[in-house]
Automatic annotation (TrEMBL):
A Pfam short name: CheW
Protein name, per record: Chemotaxis protein CheW
Keywords from the named record: Cytoplasm
SUPFAM superfamilies assigned to the protein according to its UniProt record, in alphabetical order: CheW-like
Record's subcellular location: Cytoplasm
InterPro entries: CheW, CheW-like_dom_sf, CheW-lke_dom
PANTHER family from the UniProt entry: CHEMOTAXIS PROTEIN CHEW (PTHR22617:SF45), CHEMOTAXIS SENSOR HISTIDINE KINASE-RELATED (PTHR22617)
Major localization class: cytoplasm
Keyword Transmembrane helix in record: no
Domain CheW-like: from-to ranges: 79-221
Length: 224
């Protein structure tokens, strides 16, 4: 495409600029009085000024478009850092900023005169006794036990950072920590439970993404 054609494309694709070369210039009715002096529109200062304005606007538009693409790519690469785990047959995800550590399973020691379904007892975590909560009871879930599909699948304890100190919850399997594109989180598919923020389709699984604020609030209430 020659310079004249490129300028025409820019003039039509960006904010309107008087393309006099197409109205009264060489591509119009040739009534422009400046044609006598310049012979062709590309020799005219008006045409040159319009070209400069259009090219400047095009460059700005391109820069903005590139910046938007870069920001989108950074967001996707960063994503939301989620730990995916299984309770019974149900897969869940929790923001990693709520977690202190994923630890091996430890014995849970029951507490005398303890009647709470949520508080199961205490576990020894590096020499400290930490409250152990039932995440299923905390979320009000009725879970079905799922048979392990591999000898490598081992229960784990998640050490969660609560306001009053760390607590541990036992899970049946940990898939790992993943950076998830927020656009993959379907909030419309979330259940009526206030603990569910969204649903994520992940490697053939339907994963319930937990609302971290509501989960931590329930943890704090269970310890009060």
């Amino acid at each position: 495409m020659n310079g004249q054609g490129e300028l025409d494309v820019l003039a039509t694709s960006l904010e309107a600029i008087d393309d006099c070369w197409n109205r009264i210039g060489v591509h119009g009715d040739k009534s422009c009085p400046l044609l006598v002096e310049h012979i062709h529109c590309r020799n005219c200062d008006v045409y040159a000024a319009a070209a400069t304005r259009l090219l400047d606007r095009y460059a700005l538009a391109q820069d903005a478009h590139v910046q938007q693409e870069v920001e989108a790519q950074v967001q996707v690469r960063a994503g939301r850092s989620l730990l995916l785990f299984r309770l019974g047959e149900e897969w869940m995800a929790l923001a990693t900023r709520c977690l202190v550590e994923v630890a091996p399973l430890q014995p849970v020691h029951s507490l005398p005169h303890q009647r709470s379904r949520v508080l199961k007892g205490v576990a020894n975590v590096r020499g400290a006794l930490v409250p152990c909560l039932s995440l299923a009871d905390l979320l009000g879930l009725e879970l079905t036990n799922a048979a392990a599909t591999s000898a490598r699948v081992m229960p784990r304890m998640l050490i969660v950072a609560a306001n009053g100190g760390s607590v541990v919850v036992q899970v049946d399997e940990v898939d790992g920590i993943h950076a998830v594109d927020p656009q993959r989180l379907n909030s419309e598919a979330a259940s009526e439970s206030r603990f569910t923020e969204a649903v994520l389709q992940w490697r053939g699984r339907s994963v319930r993404v937990l609302n971290e604020e509501h989960v931590l609030s329930a943890v704090n209430r269970s310890l009060s």
